[in-house]
């Protein structure tokens, strides 16, 4: 039984990593910022898997996504900036898995408001730490693009919020619809 669960988990990691990259490509068609960044629909499969299997699975998907994105024309100013914008920004999404137990309990207890609250909180944590990573990278490595007279931190916060706030909203809506309506897929052992 343990080997079967491990095989299912590995197959889901492969499928969700692929789905995340497709969503990343598609979201880039709608909003792609001039110095990097786009709607982060990539978070949906990572958050889903982090809630389903835990933080470690989300971390693995984040590492895979970062590696695959680095092979597809990345915007890298320095190795540290590349590490922040690709590796760290991808793996912090897995922190959403911290709320897995609370979401599962709210679904089992059929408490809709709590379900939405915890799912939104999970997406917020992922979005916040992803934004924080991009913000730090922007302050340190991209401040030279700030308009004359604008502090680098203000420019970085506004620039990165331009796509991360809509990403948070869209991902929250999608996951608040998806997880409660497909709870048996997210938590298969639930009776």
TrEMBL record:
Spell out the molecular function terms from Gene Ontology: thiamine transmembrane transporter activity
Positions of transmembrane segments: 6-27, 39-66, 86-104, 116-143, 163-187
According to the UniProt record, one GO cellular component term is:
plasma membrane
Name assigned to this protein: Thiamine transporter ThiT
Say if the entry is tagged with keyword Cell wall biogenesis/degradation.
Answer: no
Q: List the signal peptide residues.
A: none
**Keyword presence, Calcium:** no
Provide the alphabetized UniProt keywords: Membrane, Transmembrane, Transmembrane helix
NCBIfam families reported in the protein's UniProt record: ECF_ThiT_YuaJ
Q: Which domain of life is it from?
A: Bacteria
The record's annotation in InterPro entries points to:
Thia_Transptr_ThiT
